């Protein structure tokens, strides 16, 4: 009875609620517009009031770089910034990056004679400061990505020559700071594993990169808050997917934010992003940029390249860095850029997006000679004025002054005195739980191995195509072979068919193992490169976990072997069957290793072309098209690296070795009466199955090792920091200064 009454009450309440919902009239057009206007204003408003930022609003600066009240501009700006930071209890200290006379030269041209030098960056000076959101803008090919890469330590040594200096917190850079969690770089392409969900991806990176001392609950809490911060809550359990492919997953904007999130998991102090909004509609772009602005507002240094942002997005930047043809044209407050160019007589027309205006005046017009000359003159004027007014130098000084105010290192001018910033940073951060929480090493080798293995297995399990296609191919081959070679007899025809079938099996295993390995590994190489360049894990942990995770893929081969062996009617006896299986497994491993080696050592296109070509060559030396004894002396060594030869000779010895008898029909011109004669025909009479299987396994390990070496070496060459001589000298001087300071302290004591 009671239950009935309760149910009735619930029913009445639900009905009332529905009626109430229905009764609320929809908002009017004016109401909707008012709400939107409010939202829009909130979204585009800067999170830190402009007047509280150093050098902005309120106080006017005169041309000489001092305030009207006579106080040094840089010092005043730095003190204001410090006050704001203390008031806002920012959770990060950021990193200041200064660069002086930075020049990056590359060689262009096809051959040595035609090669010429090109200055991609020409004598640039500037700085990026903590809590600042810096937009790096310029026409296409102006050098934005190159500058971003130089600052974030991503210019490979072999690519070009870097001169000038880049200082991080006033100190010469080193590999450690770039591969640590302090500096993050978000590439333009989203290199992600498609079958993992957003949550799984973030958690994996949190487990890999955050300190072991942090509890798993804390890591989960952090990831959850990051997901909220990046607006990914609705898709946290969705697979990341492939853009426009299978599996379908996140939208373009969500992928971009997930891509940023992976780097944010490590909670870096400085974040560099290459075109974070490319390919997004303007609303999605605004969401991404707003998320980045928030990150800067928490104290981090955020620098990103961007193409023609809409005006509401442009408003979100604190600093603007305009470059064209490798020259710096403006560096300073983004809000003051329009005024700056107006003073140079370049007025931004009314109702025009300032970003569009900057693109127009900084682009090179090559439509005619006159237009090209005019634009060249204009760009030269901007570059000269930027130098004359010492905009870059001002930025460096401001960064130095901020550093001194924040960390008291007396390092005005952007450093070079061997500052102890990081130590001061730690000291100052003692009252800041978030900063302290993040100290300590990430996962150790065994944890990395386990986490990466888990990821590989999950990826494999969810990759339906990857699981079923090889099985279907194996089944089709098994059926074809069973139909063509069913119940082979012991006559001479049977001998020929057996040989043919064995060789075909070897070819099938070689192709179906090597080619998928090239495909899979070539796709993964870029993702691994990205993750390794952020210092997420070691190459060996990845490689070994991948090797082991791939082993279950050999299982379908067992079914293939069982089916073919029985239907064809190969030699009877369990030991012969299991030897057959071991030979096939070893060959599959060696062919897979060859595929990985190709993908690791060559660009994707070359690996895909050379993979099948190399198998064709191995087929030639496999023992059937060319008798082993007929191979010319110079090419004899090939058989020692030919896994098809090892497999075929071992399979033949397994099938025909010992005293296997075959029948002859009267009148047959040539008859092979026993297995020994068959082996002699192919020059396999001395082949020992055990030796071939052992050699095959050893060959596989050797190729795997080479593949690992190429992968590691390739990534390390890419990751090696291109440090200009000036910086190295600075570093030596810094160390000298440090030694002198220590000596002074000792003497004073
Ligand atoms: N390693 C290199 N070898 C040859 N040329 C290079 C190299 N690196 C950069 N360049 C050239 O330097 C110029 C600037 O390249 P960069 O990628 O920095 O421009 P960008 O402003 O980022 O262009 P976009 O906006 O189109 O991405 C281009 O002309 C590019 O071809």
Summarize the structure.
It is found in: Membrane. The chain contains 27 helices and ten strands.
Q: Which properties best describe this structure?
A:
single chain, 749 residues, elongated, binds adenosine-5'-triphosphate, ATP-binding cassette sub-family G member 2, 10 strands, ABCG_dom, ATP binding, alpha/beta, disordered C terminus
Characterization of this structure:
Keywords: ATP-binding, Membrane, Nucleotide-binding, Transmembrane, Transmembrane helix, Transport. The chain crosses the membrane at residues 464-485, 497-522, 576-597, 604-626, 693-711. This protein is 56% helix and 9% strand. With 749 residues, the chain is of the alpha/beta class. Among the domains are: 190-266, no CATH class; 445-716, no CATH class. A six-stranded mixed beta sheet has the order 6-7-8-3-9-10, sandwiched between helices. Helix 6 crosses helix 7 and helix 22 runs parallel beside helix 26 (689-719). The model is unreliable at 46-74, 81-89, 409-437 and 734-749 (pLDDT under 50). Bound molecules: adenosine-5'-triphosphate (ATP). The site of adenosine-5'-triphosphate (ATP) has 13 residues, from strand 1 and helix 4.
Oligomer: single chain
Low-confidence stretches: 46-74, 81-89, 409-437, 734-749
**Largest sheet strand order:** 6-7-8-3-9-10
Q: Please give the number of β-strands.
A: 10
Query: Which structural class fits the helix and strand makeup?
Result: alpha/beta
Biggest sheet statistics: 6 strands, mixed
Main location: membrane
Organism: Bathycoccus prasinos
Domain ABC transporter: 106-350
Pfam families: ABC2_membrane, ABC2_membrane_7, ABC_tran
């Amino acid at each position: 009875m009671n239950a009935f009454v309760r149910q009735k009450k619930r029913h009445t309440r639900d009905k009332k609620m529905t009626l109430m919902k229905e009764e609320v009239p929809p908002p009017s057009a004016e109401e909707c517009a008012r709400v939107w206007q409010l939202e829009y204003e909130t979204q585009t408003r800067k999170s830190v009031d402009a007047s509280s930022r150093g050098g902005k609003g309120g106080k006017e600066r005169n041309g000489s770089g001092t305030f009207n009240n006579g106080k040094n501009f840089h010092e005043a700006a730095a003190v204001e910034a410090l006050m704001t930071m203390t008031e806002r209890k920012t959770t990060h200290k950021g990193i200041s990056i200064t660069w002086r006379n930075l020049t990056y030269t590359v060689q262009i041209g096809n051959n040595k004679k035609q090669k010429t030098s090109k200055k991609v960056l020409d004598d640039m000076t500037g700085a990026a400061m903590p809590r600042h959101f810096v937009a790096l803008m310029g026409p296409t090919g102006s050098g934005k990505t190159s500058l971003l890469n130089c600052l974030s330590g991503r210019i490979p040594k072999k690519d070009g020559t870097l001169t000038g200096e880049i200082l991080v917190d006033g100190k010469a850079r080193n590999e450690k700071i770039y591969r640590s969690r302090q500096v993050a770089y978000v590439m333009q392409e989203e290199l992600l594993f498609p079958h993992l969900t957003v949550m799984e991806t973030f958690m994996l990176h949190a487990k890999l990169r955050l300190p072991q001392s942090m509890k798993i609950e804390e890591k989960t809490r952090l990831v959850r808050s990051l997901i909220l911060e990046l607006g990914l809550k609705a898709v946290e359990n969705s697979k990341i997917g492939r853009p426009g492919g299978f599996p379908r997953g996140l939208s373009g904007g969500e992928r971009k934010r997930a891509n940023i999130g992976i780097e944010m998991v490590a909670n870096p102090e400085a974040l560099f992003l290459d075109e974070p909004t490319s390919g997004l509609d303007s609303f999605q772009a605004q969401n991404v940029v707003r998320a980045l602005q928030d990150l800067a507002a928490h104290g981090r240094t955020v620098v990103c390249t961007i193409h023609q942002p809409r005006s509401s997005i442009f408003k979100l930047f604190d600093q603007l860095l305009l470059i064209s043809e490798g020259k710096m044209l403006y560096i300073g407050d983004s809000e003051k850029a329009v005024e700056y160019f107006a003073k140079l007589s370049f007025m931004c027309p009314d109702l025009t997006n300032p970003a569009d205006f900057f693109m127009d005046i900084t682009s090179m017009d090559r439509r005619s000679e006159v237009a090209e000359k005019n634009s060249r003159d204009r760009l030269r004027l901007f570059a000269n004025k930027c130098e004359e007014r010492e905009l870059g130098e001002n930025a460096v000084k401001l960064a130095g002054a901020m550093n001194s105010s924040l960390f008291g290192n007396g390092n005005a001018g952007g450093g070079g005195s061997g500052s102890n910033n990081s130590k001061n940073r730690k000291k100052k951060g003692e009252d800041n739980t978030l900063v302290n929480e993040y100290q300590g090493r990430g996962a150790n080798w065994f944890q990395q191995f386990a986490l990466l293995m888990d990821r590989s297995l999950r990826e494999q399990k969810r990759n339906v195509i990857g699981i079923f296609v090889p099985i279907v191919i194996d089944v089709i081959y098994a059926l074809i072979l069973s139909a063509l070679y069913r119940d082979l007899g012991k006559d001479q025809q049977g001998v020929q068919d057996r040989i043919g079938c064995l060789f075909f099996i070897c070819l099938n295993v070689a192709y179906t193992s090597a080619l998928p390995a090239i495909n899979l590994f070539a796709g993964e190489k870029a993702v691994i490169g990205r993750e390794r360049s952020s210092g997420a894990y070691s190459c060996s942990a990845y490689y070994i976990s991948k090797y082991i995770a791939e082993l279950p893929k050999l299982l379908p081969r067992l079914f293939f072997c069982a089916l073919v062996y029985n239907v064809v009617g190969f030699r009877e006896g369990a030991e012969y069957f299991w030897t057959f299986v071991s030979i096939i497994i070893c060959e599959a491993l060696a062919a897979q290793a060859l595929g990985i080696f190709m993908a690791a050592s060559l660009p994707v296109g070359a690996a895909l072309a050379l993979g099948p070509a190399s198998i064709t060559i191995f087929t030639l030396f496999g023992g059937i098209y060319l008798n082993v004894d007929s191979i010319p002396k110079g090419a004899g060594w090939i058989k020692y690296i030919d896994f098809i030869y090892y497999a075929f000779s071992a399979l033949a010895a397994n099938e025909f070795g010992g005293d296997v008898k075959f029948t002859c029909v009267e009148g047959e011109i040539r008859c092979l009466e026993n297995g020994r004669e068959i082996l002699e025909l192919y020059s396999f009479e001395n082949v020992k199955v055990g030796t071939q299987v052992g050699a095959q396994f050893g060959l596989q390990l050797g190729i795997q090792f080479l593949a690992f070496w190429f992968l590691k070496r390739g990534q390390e060459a890419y990751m090696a920091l291109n440090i200009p001589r000036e910086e190295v000298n600075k570093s030596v001087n810094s160390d000298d200064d440090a030694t002198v300071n220590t000596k002074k302290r000792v003497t004073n004591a």
